[in-house]
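User: Reviewer 2 asked us to show a designed sequence for the structure in our supplementary figure. I'm pasting the structure tokens here. Could you produce the per-position amino acids so we can include them in the response letter?
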């Protein structure tokens, strides 16, 4: 009986540690790894109660593996650095239904310099474009029906702006932000395919694989958006391995959930929205913020950029 109780946590630890999630159910399950880690002491206590040494060892190893994967996201701290500041915000608009008033107010109050929007519909563009361009006059936008649209709005000039289509049909928009005193920064508003059905897994995996890697000897890159994946998914871990850092995890807020905050019943909340930054960027602050009308929380980050050194401003296609 104890082995039946241990099996879910042991299997979870193996799948997450080795990054071997492949089918739809394991891929979806891995998103909830923080909850597995939270409950992992339960099988250890039960194993200790049985006095079976092997069961105790297996339960303890599973607990350590899950805790090691999750706990570092909650123990970081803001970084202190001097240099040009870039305040960024990313928000999924839920098919354009997000409250325009709340979004505009947040942009004003937080003095946002770079805004990344996903699920940016033609209706949202009509509601937001005029006022946003008063606040953030430079933009790279691709409105599209449903959840396929995307946009970047910037206080500073955007060079080489454009968009591309992800596997699954979502648009990603991008541009090079030219901030006085800082190296040019290549920013992307990203939205890989979601996992609402098993047939989405190949599209989801392909979309994550096509996100531009960090290039520590090239342009400084930022990936902002609804990544439709957590830091426990192997494709995101591979992306981080190229040289990105998750801003929320760096400052100890990586366990704050961002979805779902509407519908989906009692589904536990997870962290799908991210600000991923080049390792050369320092993170001074991160906040996860409510927005009415959308099932996602917005993510704000105050970034310190490298000073201008003639960096490469090329944009990945």
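Assistant: Here is a per-position design you can include in the supplement:
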């Amino acid at each position: 009986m104890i082995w039946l109780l241990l099996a879910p946590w042991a299997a979870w630890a193996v799948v997450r540690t080795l990054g071997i999630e492949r089918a739809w159910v394991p891929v979806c399950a891995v998103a909830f790894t923080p909850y597995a880690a939270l409950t992992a002491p339960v099988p250890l206590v039960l194993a200790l109660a049985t006095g079976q040494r092997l069961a105790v060892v297996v339960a303890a190893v599973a607990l350590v593996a899950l805790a090691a994967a999750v706990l570092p996201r909650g123990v970081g701290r803001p970084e202190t650095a001097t240099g040009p500041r870039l305040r960024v915000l990313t928000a999924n608009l839920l098919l354009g239904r997000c409250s325009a008033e709340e979004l505009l107010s947040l942009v004003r109050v937080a003095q946002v310099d770079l805004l990344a929007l996903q699920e940016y519909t033609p209706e949202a563009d009509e509601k937001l474009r005029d006022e946003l361009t008063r606040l953030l006059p430079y933009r790279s936008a691709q409105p599209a029906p449903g959840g396929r649209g995307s946009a970047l709005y910037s206080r500073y000039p955007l060079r080489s702006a454009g968009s591309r289509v992800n596997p699954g049909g979502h648009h990603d928009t991008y541009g090079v932000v030219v901030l006085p005193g800082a190296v040019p920064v290549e920013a992307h508003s990203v939205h890989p395919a979601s996992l609402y059905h098993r047939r989405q897994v190949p599209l989801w995996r392909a979309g994550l694989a096509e996100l531009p890697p960090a290039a520590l000897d090239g342009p400084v890159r930022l990936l902002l958006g609804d990544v439709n994946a957590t830091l426990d998914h192997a494709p995101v871990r591979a992306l981080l391995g190229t040289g990105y850092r998750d801003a929320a995890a760096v400052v100890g807020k990586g366990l704050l959930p961002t979805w779902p905050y509407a519908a989906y019943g009692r589904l536990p909340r997870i962290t799908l929205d991210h600000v991923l930054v080049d390792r050369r960027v320092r993170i001074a602050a991160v906040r996860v913020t409510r927005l009415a009308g959308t099932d996602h929380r917005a993510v704000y980050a105050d970034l310190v950029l490298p000073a201008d050194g003639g960096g490469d401003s090329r944009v990945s296609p």
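For the response letter, you might also mention the following. DSSP finds ten helices and twelve strands in the chain. Residues 2-74 form one domain.
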